[in-house]
Amino acid sequence: MRADARDNRARIMTAADEVFGRTPGASTDDVARLAGVGIATVFRHFPTKTELLEAVLTLRLERLRDRALELADSDDPGTAFYAFFTQVVSESASKLAIAEALAAAGTAIGADTQKAGQGMREAFDGLLTRAQRAGAVRADAQFPETYALLIGASRGATAAALEPHVRDRMLALIYDGLKPRS
Amino acid sequence: MRADARDNRARIMTAADEVFGRTPGASTDDVARLAGVGIATVFRHFPTKTELLEAVLTLRLERLRDRALELADSDDPGTAFYAFFTQVVSESASKLAIAEALAAAGTAIGADTQKAGQGMREAFDGLLTRAQRAGAVRADAQFPETYALLIGASRGATAAALEPHVRDRMLALIYDGLKPRS
């Protein structure tokens, strides 16, 4: 891919992330307008809206995975785990909007997106295990229910359009449940 | 309304609750078939699918409110609060499917459904306050974040299609966060 084509692709993805993250029902036209490219350029890179949505959601998941992997090197595994949990919940409104747009498009999630989701879950599991070893998360909290809590907190914050201070208080309750009883 | 018309209405609502609770995209035809009435009878009681969905969702919310009010008389406010929380989360998959079908119909939630939702929230707030007075829920958990937790747990359980034992372990983590630290 030539440099200007790569630039265009990156601009389209950034615009699509913003547009669909805010308005799941937005059109490819809206994306082209914000990216400052013609609609034909969008379709050259992403022949269908579904492909564009998948690419954006995959990028989101890959970034979260990368963030988790970065935090996994932290000297303070407890802080790393809770920071990641908070970041996922804070970003959830726009990420879920993209997932919702994809679901509304009636397509099964493609292989790339599934792989990115799997990578994110594994990285979260790594953070959980390290935080447990450090005594910052109770040892009996297994991955499935801890991940369900992450998804639940994300969806709860999104559905109720929580104000940040209510979201933070909800997270404080969840974190107290995850911390070992002294 | 005559007795047979009332019977038909009740059968249609029961069938709709089951059909839409399982398959948000189901048709009014499916409801008529399960109810054992003609499609014309369904439309006589509920001129649009939206009206039928609203009626079913309203009934769900009213039943939850009634259950909360009933539990409010319990001698054990702590057990009452956690039992209600668990019931809402357990029923959430089918209730959310109905809410989703309504959202997909593109209609704003009507006044009756809003009022039923408000009644349910108030009854939950009553259970929370009593459980706090009884020392079964920490005193600093306010209604907004506790309700956000309820919504989050419901949506988390639904989105992840959690198996009952994972759901119960997720709830155990949440309940530990809600209980006063000894």
Written description of the protein model:
- The structure is a homodimer of 182-residue chains.
- Chain A is elongated, with a radius of gyration of 18 Å.
- The mean pLDDT of chain A is 90.
- The longest helix of chain A is centred in the middle third of the chain and has 28 residues, at 77-104.
- Chain A has helices at 3-22, 28-35, 39-45, 49-71, 77-104, 111-133, 143-159, 164-178.
- By secondary structure, chain A is mainly alpha-helical.
- Chain A is built from 8 helices and no strands.
- The interface between A and B is medium-sized, with 31 and 30 residues.
Task: Provide a compact summary of the structure.
Two copies of one chain form a homodimer. With 182 residues, chain A is an all-alpha fold. In chain A, 77% of the residues lie in helices and 0% in strands.
Percentage of β-strand residues of chain A: under 5%
* Uncertain stretches of chain A: none
Cα distance spanning the termini of chain A: 57 Å
What characteristic shape of chain A results from the CA principal axes?
elongated
The helix-and-strand class of chain A reads: mainly alpha
H/E element order of chain A:
HHHHHHHH
Oligomer: homodimer
Radius of gyration of chain A: 18 Å
Largest sheet of chain A: none
In total, the number of strands of chain A is: 0
Largest interface: A-B, 31 and 30 residues
Number of helices of chain A: 8
The residue-averaged pLDDT of chain A reads 90
Bin the helical content of chain A: over 70%
